[in-house]
Amino acid sequence: MIPADTQRPTILIVDDTPDNLALMSALLRDTCRTKVATGGKKALAIAAGEPQPDLILLDIMMPGMDGYEVCRRLKADPRTAGIPVIFLTARTDVEDEQRGFDVGGVDYIAKPVSPPIVSARVRTHLALKQAQDFLRDRNDFLEAEVRRRMREVSAVQDATILAMASLAETRDEETGNTSGPPRNTFANSRWRHARIRASPPISPKHASSCSTSPPRSMTSAKSGFPIGSCASPAGSTPRSSKS
To answer: How many domains does the chain have?
Structure first.
């Protein structure tokens, strides 16, 4: 049986004030697993590790690396770019909020925090993250399935073409192909080449034979006999040549 704790979402809380970490952890511990970090470098290391957090609550004003820089680095890393970031801050100026959205944040929670607002914002963005993960996994599955089906179809087509060509060749060999060209494209091509190879050449003796008369249009205007005909007019005798 899988422990229930492993089925709950994981949230990374980043704040340089221990009291804020304790408060946020207490608010979320009944519904989420929580991890904490007191600085930007540690937060980046935890976010890139396994298991990765499903959501990050990130304080903006921290010494060394502030929340904006932490978020920028998270979004620049392909391993952590898909993790939603909610900023925790006492600064609610429009410019500050705009900067947070520009670096990749998805929402703001103003300090001092309100437990109902924290719970509602966290539930909303966890649901969105779950839906995005589902769609991404589904899309990956469908793409893999399409590639598999295409490979299967290609293999069937190749096998069918080879089988038809082999069958046509076998029929040519067995029947001598005397009944006309087969319908298969490959076999039909083989049939045409076979017919050309099988046609006997016209020998000189056959070409000089007088058994075939030229067309009627090819007749002498004087004698009325076909040009080149070996036959003589009825009752006439060939003239002997003078020496």
So the answer is: 2
